[in-house]
Structure formats: structure tokens, C-alpha cells
Write a structure and sequence with these properties.
There is one protein chain. 42% of the residues are buried. The N terminus and C terminus are likely disordered. The protein is built from twelve helices and eight strands. Strand 5 and strand 6 form a beta hairpin. It is an alpha/beta fold. The protein has an eight-stranded mixed beta sheet with strand order 3-2-1-4-5-6-7-8, sandwiched between helices. The site of zinc ion has 8 residues, from helix 8 and helix 12.
Length: 270
């Protein structure tokens, strides 16, 4: 069954009430709110980034949220992974977060997958989404998500946080990609993870809030202020910088997505 069958076509009275502070906004209206309701978003990682961005999207009214994460909750996660409590230790992050989202907003559909995102399942999970939010904690997954989003022409908003610093960027089907910005051969083996390097409680929450905010702009208003831009947030000085990046003509991911999508085009019926 199509999950959309569970959703009414328009906002009902309870939803109008729940989202009234958004609908009243100048620059946001019922149309924007309905676009959120019909959106499918995949969130990669239910850690420090995913906990916050998933909660904000659920509260704001994104109609279908899918979570993927294979980890269980450890005591050192509780300092920043705001969906979890000491009672959840040992449980799967994706499952506990999904339950919380459903409790927060009964009008949305939440699915979760307890598994790693790998080359065998990534395309299947990404290709039917409207938007991907990446909040994973390692370069291998980040490159994999980037490549699949380019190949399947699905927009991606990616956030990361380490120590006192965070990064955020957006790419879409025609833009430069993560690998144009950080060539894989130079960065894949860096192995920097917040699990190993320390992170202040607030840093991932700040970055995930910005990521969720951008997702609402994109889904509701079709705005992409960080497309091909890298936002750098420094939590020590509280300064942020936004750098533009461009397509690297040598980027293998962009070249591969071009050839895949030109094949698709060539095989369209005349
Ligand atoms: Zn690229």
C-alpha cells in the first residue's frame, strides 16, 4: 500500500490548529504547509544531528519521515542526542527516535530502518524521496549518500558537527556535489568522527536546527539558499561564513551521474 493513502489530501482542522503559527506567517501559508504534508524525507543517522532535525521536521509537519541508523544508544550519546533518555540505553536509535516522532505528531507517517546505509541499499532508499538530510558521523557514508543523491537526482542537505564547529551545505541534481568540494581521495581516510573527537552538546543541535530550517524552506517554499554553498559555523566565536563552491570537472561522481542520466534521457520513448 502506498503510504500516501494514509494521508488526507488537505489539512484537517486539527492540523490547521497544530500548524497555525506557521500558517499565519507572512511568507508561509496553507499551500506551503500542504507541501510539507506531502513531502517524503529520509534522514540518514539518528545521532546528534538526526535527533534534532527529525524532531523539528516532525513538529513542523513533514508528512513522511524515514530514519536509518544501525546503532544502539550508549550513555555517552545522551549529552547531545536529545531524543534519548537513560531508559533507552541499549535500544536502537532509529526505533526510539521514530517512536518519539510519532508521539510528538500523530498526523505524520514515520518509518525506521535498523541497518547501515551501504551501496547495496542506498539507491533503493534514496530514489523515492523528495529530500535527503544527512547527519551521519563518517566520511564513507557521506560520500555514499552524495553519490546516490547525484545519481538519482534527489536533493541533499548535509550537516556535520565536530568539537565547536559545524558545516552545512546543499546540493541538487544540477549542482556541484560534496565530492567536488572535498575530493574523495583526500578526505575519505581522515576518519574524524564525533565519537572519537569530542563534541560540545550544543554544536550538533545548532547545525541540525539550521539543516531542518533549510529543509522547511526548500520543501515549503522551494528556496535553496545554501545550494552549492558551504556554511561554516564556529561555535567559539559564534561567527558563520558561507563559501560558494563549484563543479569540479574531474569529479567522478558528477561525471557518473551525467552519464547515468543521459542514458535515461536517451531511452525515453519518442
Ligand atoms: Zn561532484
Amino acid at each position: 500500500m502506498n503510504d500516501q493513502d494514509n494521508l488526507d489530501l488537505e489539512l484537517n482542522d486539527a492540523e490547521m490548529h497544530l500548524y497555525s503559527r506557521q500558517i499565519l506567517l507572512d511568507g508561509w501559508d496553507v499551500d506551503a504547509q500542504e507541501k510539507l504534508k506531502f513531502a517524503n524525507v529520509l534522514i540518514v543517522g539518528a545521532g546528534g544531528i538526526g535527533c534534532t532535525s527529525a524532531e523539528l521536521l516532525a513538529r513542523a509537519g513533514v508528512g513522511k519521515i524515514t530514519l536509518i541508523d544501525s546503532d544502539t544508544i550508549e550513555i555517552s550519546n545522551l549529552q547531545r542526542q536529545i531524543a534519548f533518555t537513560p531508559n533507552d540505553l541499549g535500544c536502537f536509535k532509529a526505533e526510539v527516535l521514530a517512536k518519539r516522532l510519532t508521539q510528538l505528531n500523530p498526523h505524520i507517517v514515520v518509518e525506521y530502518i535498523v541497518n547501515k546505509l551501504v551501496s547495496e541499499n542506498v539507491d533503493e532508499l534514496i530514489q523515492h524521496q523528495d529530500l535527503i538530510l544527512d547527519g551521519c558521523d563518517n566520511f564513507t557514508t557521506r560520500y555514499l549518500v552524495n553519490a546516490s543523491c547525484k545519481k538519482n537526482q534527489i536533493p541533499l542537505i548535509s550537516a556535520s558537527a565536530i568539537g565547536f564547529q559545524g558545516q552545512l551545505f546543499m546540493i541538487d541534481s544540477d549542482s556541484a556535489c560534496y565530492e567536488c568540494l572535498f575530493p574523495k581521495d583526500q578526505f575519505e581516510n581522515e576518519g574524524m568522527r564525533c565519537a572519537e573527537s569530542g563534541v560540545l552538546a550544543t554544536t550538533p543541535v545548532v547545525m541540525a536546527s539550521l539543516q531542518a530550517h533549510h529543509a522547511l524552506l526548500y520543501l515549503g517554499l522551494d528556496r535553496s539558499p545554501l545550494r552549492e554553498k558551504l556554511l561554516l559555523w564556529d561555535g567559539m566565536s559564534m561567527k558563520q561564513r558561507i563559501l560558494h563552491f563549484e563543479k569540479d570537472t574531474n569529479c567522478s561522481t558528477c561525471q557518473a551521474s551525467l552519464s547515468v542520466n543521459s542514458v535515461k534521457f536517451d531511452t525515453l520513448p519518442q
